[in-house]
Amino acid sequence: MPGVEPCPLCNRPASYVETQRPHRGKRFECVNCTHFFIDEVAEQVILNMVESTRSEARAKASKQAQASGPDRLYVMRAPKQNELGGDGHGVARSTMMSEWIPR
Ligand SMILES: [Zn+2]
């Protein structure tokens, strides 16, 4: 279902579509941040950061999304099992991965 909500990176109203690609999550279109993908885990990670860390992390992510250009999609997502350090327990909720993928 498409919708409009505050951009998770800059709070401006942004439109999104729920998608299964590249993962289950939302693809946002934001006037400020251009376009990016974020899954539920990454959204929670950002929400749960302490304020000082969050402002910095969001500003950085917004810049990276803006650097995507037309051919790439900036993706913020939960780490995959093989990307987690240690035994993986307790790590997934406090961290996220970001990468660019071809659009
Ligand atoms: Zn934005």
Layout of secondary structure:
Layout: E1 3-6, E2 13-19, E3 25-30, E4 34-38, H1 40-48, H2 51-66, E5 72-77, E6 97-102
Parallel strand pairs: 4-5
Antiparallel strand pairs: 1-2, 2-3, 3-4, 5-6
Bound molecules: zinc ion.
Kindly give the count of domains: 1
Give the oligomeric state. single chain
> What value does the Rg take, in angstroms?
13 Å
Q: What's the end-to-end separation, in Å?
A: 20 Å
Please provide a written account of the structure:
- It contains two helices and six strands, in the order ββββααββ.
- It has 103 residues and is of the alpha+beta class.
- The chain has one domain.
- It has a six-stranded mixed sheet.
- The protein starts with a strand and ends with a strand.
- The model has no long low-confidence stretch (mean pLDDT 91).
- The protein binds zinc ion (ZN).
- Zinc ion is lined by residues 7, 9-10, 12, 14, 30, 32-33, 62.
